[in-house]
Amino acid sequence: MLLDLDNPYRGGAPARLRLTAEDFTCRLSSRNREALGRPVSWSVLAYLAADCDLAECLFDNLTEMKAVGSGPDLHLMALFDGPLLTDAFFARLNPDTRLREDLLVRYGELETHKPEVLTLALHLAGLYPGKRRALFLGGHGQGWRGALLDENRGLNRHRQDPAWLDLPGTYEECFGRLLACNRQVQEDLNRHLPAPAPAGPLDVLAFDACFMGNIEAVATLAEQAHFLVVTENQMPGQGYPYHRVLTGLAREPELTAEEFCRRLVQETKDRYSSPRARPSPVTQVALRAGRLPEVIATFRRLVQELVPLLDTDAAIRRATRYALEMAWPLPETDSVDLKDLVLKLLDCPLPQEIRRGAQAFLEAWSALVLSGSPPEESGGRHGLAIYAPRPERFDPAYLSLANTLPLGLGCWSWFLARHYLQVLGQEAPRHPLLQAIRRTREEMIRQGLYPSPKDI
Question: pLDDT for 61-80, tens place per residue?
Fold first, then answer.
């Protein structure tokens, strides 16, 4: 039975996947039935996109969570999707049961990168309400390019090699049994569940994923939670110290969301503080999401003031080039640290209006960051990055994103275009990159998404 193993992903994928009848069943346990609709202090959901090379680590995370489990003041739930088959499920975790006894519903396969699957998970989590709600998103992160990679490994392997899968019956019989079990659970839920109350924004949204401390990604999340916890650089595969964090929450269920975020950041810092645990510090921040609009607005105004000066002021051209080239880099995503970019700009001679704009951004930044790791004195790492590649590495997909970024943040692509004009020199007017940026700019203006600056 797949889920009775210590970690079914230890040692890699099996040469042959042998499933039993128990792997196609799920049921609503009496304990989870009794907890339906019961308000507690905290409702915590871990959304674990493990259908990739992180399956072993994410299942270990799940085991850490289950060791704590739900209690009188805590509903602890997980949606997990692994790289085999029938290892996708939603569970309310209890500390002294077998994992398969915690499952509410089970799936042959899920596509956890799709928003509708996350919506499903949140709907199921709403069956177990809390005064405060936290959501962990675990998996691969790619900054503005997206998160929660799903490779559909088990389904693809079965399609390529049907003999890989050893079933206790025909394929149709087995998965028909699973569908019937899910229907029975739904009927059971319908009999026992009161109407759920509207949820509203989460209290805490925490990314257990690399490179999600990215202003373009974070800007789209400002309305989803009161506090965001993100990592600017690489997050170790072992992820958050879930056992310590959740044990503390179970012991002190009256923790506020702000206190919980501070502890999460500190516990993560402590876990990876030694060079042996992590050669490069994990740059993680907890953010007050309500402050994001002001930070983005001050940055947008600074960019708008800089753009026309790039054509007419040689000192501004030198300052912006220096800032882009000297700000702390994240080469994996062709990004630089956002605050360090502004600080490097302030190292240079600047007109007073530009200097005031940069200072306004720094003031807004101070109000945004609730807690950070590592401390700001450690180099140029401050917790949020922005896309800033060299011209030859620019990804045209960023232009499509620029059309959709909130609060006018898409103007950053225009700033990059102005900068590239200087870098590319005489070649610039005919360069495909500049032509693509021009087309995107014109489309944004046509749709009324942003007022027109001086023509690029």
Answer: 999 999 999 999 999 999 99
